[in-house]
Amino acid sequence: MIQGAALILLCQLAGEAVAHGTGLPLPGPVLGMILLLLLLLLNDTLPRPADTGFLAPAADGLLTNLSLLFIPAGVGVVGRLDVIQAYGLGLAVALVASTIIGLVATALTFAAVARLLRQEAEA
């Protein structure tokens, strides 16, 4: 578990370093997650891939306690109710619109992939 947590945190640290060093408009943890994904994908392409089973306990532990990570965000929202009162309508519209756009994009992507898979199966 310690090895898995260390690798996850090292990838996050590397992502933070890249984000701060390059000025990319992406959060460091997102870049770290992309780095971890790339490492896992590259590992699968090796002739003798390394055992990555040590990541599962650390990832499961994070997922089990994921709800705790939302507490600071909730406290931040409650602490800035004045901003929500001032921009509440705009925030609500943006939230609803982005949800609809995300659902439509997901549905279109699913339909396109299903169409591609159907064409491959027929060929």
Description:
The chain has helices spanning 2-22, 28-45, 55-64, 71-79, 81-122. Helix 1 (2-22) crosses helix 2 (28-45). The protein has 2 domains: 1-64, no CATH class; 72-123. The longest helix is centred in the last third of the chain and has 42 residues, at 81-122. It has 123 residues and is mostly helical. 81% of the residues lie in helices and 0% in strands. It starts with a helix and ends with a helix.
Q: Report mean pLDDT, rounded to a whole number.
A: 91
Low-confidence stretches: none
C-alpha-based Rg, rounded? 20 Å
Taken from the alpha-carbon principal axes, the silhouette is extended
Q: How far from one another are the termini?
A: 45 Å
Number of discrete domains: 2
| Strand percentage | under 5%
In helices, the fraction of residues equals over 70%
Total of DSSP H or I helical runs spanning 4+ residues: 5
What's the SSE blueprint?
Layout: H1 2-22, H2 28-45, H3 55-64, H4 71-79, H5 81-122
Using brief descriptors, characterize the structure shown:
123 residues, 2 domains, 5 helices
Q: What's the quick description here?
A:
The chain has 123 residues and is mostly helical.
